[in-house]
Design brief:
Layout (H helix, E strand, L loop, with lengths): L10 E3 L22 E6 L11 H11 L9 E9 L2 E6 L17 E6 L10 H17 L4 E4 L16 H5 L2 H5 L12 E3 L6 H7 L7 H7 L13 E3 L37 H12 L19 H14 L10 H13 L3
Parallel strand pairs: 1-4, 2-5, 2-6, 3-5
Antiparallel strand pairs: 3-4, 7-8
Bound molecules: zinc ion.
Length: 341
């Protein structure tokens, strides 16, 4: 029969094509004997010349005197087939190969080429480990996964050193690009095509996330170099999805120096001009210090325009025009407050 693992697009069948001198015996109960998928690494550095299946076969057959290469399946990070590390099918799984001593009868030998005391598992290798593992499970070949040194009598052995469990489970999220799916963690956002910090802030409206929130929460991120699929933090702004309730504004009449609304400029007269003049005088921008009442007379003339201009020069430097409007009002209110009014 043909197993699912044999149909993996990165698998190459090398059974009977590697150096050998005979054949291993069949397992007593055939493939059903296999209970454990035993994971090895070759302990040869990936960069070394002998890190290939022919060299392993020569060593096992020529030096060790075994009938065939030790492992049923070998993953080769140095050979990429269909975008993933090659998987070589070396010894028929019905045979009892030599890779785990007393456990050979129940063990399936899988070797990842490399010395993972120093080499690192590459993405293409992890993908093949995962593919092979899934296929073997689907085929019902083995029930357990064990590293070579987890087998009876092999705790001394530096095999395998890579964390095969991690490769099966969570290594994907550590090493592979994040899959495109809704953000599972509140407070995180995955950059979509065309996103900028400004557009993300915009989505949430003026009461929610601000660009400054995003910059503060993502200190290592250059907002001009966002990449599609990159995850950013929404930071404290994650709590700001619900617009803050409007705090009712205190009526101006409740202040000691109520400020007029609207725009006032040269030529204006009346109570609102008087209010403005009193407020300016309270923070030492007198319309005319030498005049009666410091020039508070209800007439928006040159003196008052000059007082407004002096105030603006200090507090609204972008708008020094001698005209009282929204920005000047806001700032004047703040200055009055800071002086205890
Ligand atoms: Zn081993």
């Amino acid at each position: 029969m043909t197993y699912k693992f044999q149909q993996l697009p990165q698998l190459v069948d090398k059974r009977g094509k590697l150096p050998s001198k005979g054949s291993y015996n069949k397992r007593a109960n055939g493939v059903k004997s296999i209970t454990t998928r035993v994971w090895h690494h070759s302990l040869t550095k990936l960069s070394a010349g002998g890190s290939n299946i022919v060299a392993f076969a020569n060593f096992h057959v020529g030096t060790n005197g075994w009938p065939e290469i030790a492992y049923h399946l070998i993953i080769d990070p140095n050979t990429i087939i269909n975008g993933k590390a090659a998987i070589y099918y070396c010894v028929d799984i019905s045979k009892r190969s030599y890779h785990a001593g007393n456990s050979n009868t129940i063990g399936l030998g899988i070797c990842v080429i490399g010395d993972y005391r120093t080499d690192k598992l590459s993405e293409v290798t992890i993908r093949s480990i995962i593919d092979l593992h899934k296929a073997l499970i689907a085929d019902g070949i083995g029930k357990y996964d064990k590293a070579h040194n987890e087998m009876p009598g092999y705790s001394w052995k530096a095999c395998c050193v890579f964390d095969y469990n991690k490769a099966f489970k969570d290594v994907l999220s550590d090493l592979l690009p994040p899959a495109k799916q809704p953000d599972p963690v509140p407070g995180l956002y995955t950059i979509q095509e065309g996103d900028t910090f400004w557009s993300i802030a915009e989505k949430d409206g003026p009461a929610g996330i601000t660009v400054n929130d995003l910059i503060a929460a993502n200190s290592g991120v250059d907002p001009t170099k966002l990449k599609v699929g990159q995850t950013i933090k929404l930071g404290k702004s994650q709590y700001a999805y619900t617009p803050k309730p409007d705090v009712p504004k205190k009526p101006q009449s409740s202040y000691r120096y109520p400020l007029p609304s609207g725009v006032l400029k040269k030529g204006a007269r009346g109570d609102s001009v008087r209010q403005l003049q009193k407020a300016l005088a309270a923070v030492h921008f007198y319309p005319n210090k030498n005049a009666k009442n410091n020039g508070v007379d209800g007439i928006y003339g040159n003196d008052t325009a000059d007082a407004v201009r002096r105030f603006q020069r200090v507090y609204v430097p972008g708008q020094v025009d001698g005209v009282y409007g929204t920005n000047t009002k806001k700032k004047l209110q703040a200055v009055l407050k800071s002086k205890g009014y």
